[in-house]
Amino acid sequence: MDGHGYPDQLVGTETPPQARLMAIIDVYDALRTERPYKSPIPEADALRIIHDGGRTGQFDPELVRVFLELRTEPANGH
């Protein structure tokens, strides 16, 4: 959200919403999946990191809120 990681130095809502959403998903995936250089971290830890990123301005706070709601809701009532 601060423009540091985006090639055109866009800030906040200047960054397309698709890119803001993909930033959250990409970090979540990197945290939760095994990589040759690291083990996956627990779901609760990954969600905390995403939440913290929304608070600090790394991610769009509204998209983080929606992402976290979707991650914690049971799918189809299960």
Q: What this model shows, in words?
A:
This protein is an all-alpha fold and 78 residues long. The chain contains three helices and no strands. The protein is globular. It starts with 16 loop residues before the first helix and ends in a 6-residue tail after the last helix.
Describe how the helices and strands are arranged:
Elements: H1 17-32, H2 43-56, H3 61-72
Helix pairs in contact: 1-2, 2-3
Keywords:
78 residues; mainly alpha; 3 helices
Quick summary:
By secondary structure, the chain is mainly alpha-helical. The chain is built from three helices and no strands.
Mean pLDDT: 88
Q: Supply the helix-strand structural class.
A: mainly alpha
Strand % is: under 5%
Helix and strand sequence = HHH
Instruction: Summarize the biggest pleated sheet.
Output: none
Q: Please state the CA-atom Rg, rounded to the nearest Å.
A: 13 Å
List how many beta strands DSSP finds: 0
Low-confidence stretches: none
Helix content: 40-55%
- Counted by DSSP, the helix tally is 3
N/C terminus separation: 34 Å
Principal-axes shape call: globular
